[in-house]
């Protein structure tokens, strides 16, 4: 039996974190989760997920800081999807400048989320 692909969900809202986790587990992913930016970085280094689904507004370190930290470490080579309520074009541009591979706005349709995650984990990580 093959090992499930691992996704880290970083979301401070317990309800939203559970919803995203349920959607991704239902799609066949192993999901680990964090409720703040510092815990997210610890889990990234410990578990080396294929993808991080990252909110922006987080305690301790915001999503932009977490994304920059992940992308600054060439040993990680982990893709980052920002999934956030910040839906202004300036937020999207700033997220991409921080290294986000994909930027989706909440609320997101379950099918759209699964498709985006499937697309991201099926393509090689980019080298920054």
UniProtKB/TrEMBL annotation:
PROSITE patterns: RESPONSE_REGULATORY. Residues 6-121 form the Response regulatory domain. Keywords: DNA-binding, Phosphoprotein, Transcription, Transcription regulation, Two-component regulatory system. The modification 4-aspartylphosphate is found at residue 55. InterPro entries: Bact_response_regulator, CheY-like_superfamily, Sig_transdc_resp-reg_receiver. GO terms for biological process: phosphorelay signal transduction system. Gene3D superfamilies: 3.40.50.2300. GO terms for molecular function: DNA binding. It holds the Pfam family Response_reg. PANTHER family: PROTEIN PILH, STRESS RESPONSE REGULATOR PROTEIN 1. This is Alkaline phosphatase synthesis transcriptional regulatory protein PhoP. The gene is phoP_2.
């Amino acid at each position: 039996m093959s090992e499930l692909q691992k996704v880290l969900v970083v979301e401070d809202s317990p309800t939203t974190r559970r919803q995203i986790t349920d959607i991704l587990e239902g799609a066949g992913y192993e999901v680990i989760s964090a409720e703040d930016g510092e815990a997210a970085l610890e889990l990234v280094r410990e578990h080396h997920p294929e993808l991080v689904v990252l909110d922006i507004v987080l305690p301790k370190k915001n999503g932009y800081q977490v994304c920059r930290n992940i992308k600054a470490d060439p040993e990680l080579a982990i893709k980052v999807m920002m999934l956030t309520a910040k839906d202004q074009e300036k937020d999207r541009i700033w997220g991409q400048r921080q290294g986000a591979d994909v930027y989706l706005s909440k609320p997101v349709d379950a099918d759209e989320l699964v498709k985006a995650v499937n697309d991201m984990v099926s393509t090689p990580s980019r080298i920054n």
